């Protein structure tokens, strides 16, 4: 009989590790787009949805709730008719935005190389089939 494996902090390869859970959250494409969209200041729900594009109302709502739960986004409701809701980044998200900006710049600088590699790879697969 094997002993149960102890959960270690920082063991990002273990799906139960808190570090892995955070990496999964910030690696989600919708979460990244929401965070980057909010970097310039508060945005209302419908404006956020319009700016991101191709995201359903349900998915945006779920993503915002998850980011709020993680302390990366805050929600403010104003007593208007109908109720106005704004989302903004929290101070915790500030450091993350710098990293996401760097990743975005890297992607923009290398998108041509990646597209070339994809075409070459797809051509090799087509010839092998």
From TrEMBL:
PANTHER family: HTH-TYPE TRANSCRIPTIONAL REGULATOR YODB, TRANSCRIPTIONAL REGULATOR, MARR FAMILY
Ranges where the HTH hxlR-type domain occurs: 17-115
CDD domains noted in UniProt: HTH_ARSR (cd00090)
Name of this chain's protein: Winged helix-turn-helix transcriptional regulator
Signal peptide: none
InterPro entries the record matches: ArsR-like_HTH (IPR011991), HTH_HxlR (IPR002577), WH-like_DNA-bd_sf (IPR036388), WH_DNA-bd_sf (IPR036390)
Keywords: DNA-binding, Transcription, Transcription regulation
